[in-house]
Amino acid sequence: MKPTLITGATGFVGWHVARKLLDRGDKIRGLARDPGRFRELEGIEAVQGDLRVRATLDAAVAGCGVVYHVAADYRLWTKQPEEMFHTNVEGTRNLLEAARNAGVERVVYTSTVGCIGVPPDGIGDEGSPVSREEMAGPYKQSKFLAERAALEFASQGLPVVIVNPTAPVGDHDVKPTPTGKIVVDFVRGAMPAFLDTGLNLVDVRDVAGGHLAACERGRTGERYILGAENLTLEQIFLKLGEITGIAAPKIQIPYAVAYAAGLVSTAWAGMSGKEPRAPLDGVRMARKKMWVSQEKAARELGYSPGPAAGALKRAVEWFRANGYC
User: Fold this and answer.
1) Number of folded domains that form the chain
2) pTM summary value
């Protein structure tokens, strides 16, 4: 059996993809700048490498049959946005070139729901029109360009399938991700109010399973949304309230107030170098509900996600057990 290379296994979604592959007995090679960060992934072959350093990728991909490219620089604020483009766009190109040269049989590229077009007050899908101008901030812009690079390689013959996870939640969200931070802040009592916005929430384990299904049944050059439930932020807080016994906030903040807070918070971050409490790009993203349909993945991949409540409960338990709140 040829080994499978996975990038991003030290992160949230990547860890769960690696865990599923290991549990079914696959031989896994994990790429990381610091292999010492692999945790609870017994049996993984740790390889030191950097998406920005092409030579390390050639060595990592050598002999592999499948590549899961899950790694990304995922932040809603950075003082040096060019670093995000270097990792997410150039790094993706570097890895896909290495995979093509190595004769890899399949690549699954992890994009984001942020690259999916969502019509005003509607539900988006893989066919909804979208442009770079709609991408708020360097993270979404860099992922948009990286997805275009993956489609370009697919058009040239590299067997690349793209998955677009929505807002995953669950255990082992080490960083945590922006969605995980919502959970942590809620449990800490640091969420006194909410915006009129919405997310498509999904169990990270279902997202990981969707990656494996995309590898096995996805069509080259196609995108597949991996989501579950379209929920308002208020509904998410109410679910967290039921799980934790903590009262959900009842005050809704007008978007203009949130935008002003984002401006001040982000301006101060630029001077202090500390991450803003309310990143302006995050506020901009919240202006519209990111509600989408995963019907294509269900139809073509057999993707069948469960409700998000169980994942929220698991996230709360994991964050509490690991000292986040």
Assistant:
1) 1
2) 0.92
